[in-house]
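Re: weekly structure request thread

Next one in the queue (202 aa):
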Amino acid sequence: MDLTKTGEFIAERRKAKNLTQAKLAEKIFVSEKTVSKWECGKGFPDTSIILLLCEVLEISANELLSGKLLSKEEYKINAEENLIALKNQQARYAKHLLTLEYVVGFMSSLIFLISIFFSVYVIEPLAWKIVLVTFGSLSFLIGLIFTLLIEREAGYYQCGNCGYKRVPSYKEVLFSMHMGRSRYLKCPKCGKRTWNKKKIDK
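Done, posted below.
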């Protein structure tokens, strides 16, 4: 998928519909800056708004992914290629999110441990000890929430027994045992508790 080509196509169709970036953004519930980013080839519409964008621009999702209007013959040829390209792009995005999860988790834990160390062994005034412990605890809590969001949203989990693929609830992610990228979850399909592996490509 060529983001520059797709961006130019979005701009072309927007102008053909006599829409400004601001007006298009308003119709699809995003910011004008987001539309500008797409048209400059620096981003791509989220899958949740692709259909709405296509409806406003009067194009198909396949044409959006191809970056041009398609004939019937081209439509069939490009459909499969575009689905594969979109799938690969989503997998790359999920990998970036999971890398970010490691970084945020490590940094928030490190800040927490350093805060505790300084409050116990270095800082004397009680008020400063309280400030440090509070700061470290808040950093850890924010990091935990952020990593929890990423852990649930990036990819999916696959049942170790029946192979059923799903995205667990936040509660399941928070309270389930885990080792690396595997979690001990109850499968809603087969009803068995097994180690579910994290997958990022469907």
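Strands lie at 156-158, 165-166, 178-179, 182-186, 193-199. Helices lie at 3-16, 21-28, 32-39, 50-57, 61-66, 72-121, 126-153, 170-175.
Next request, please.
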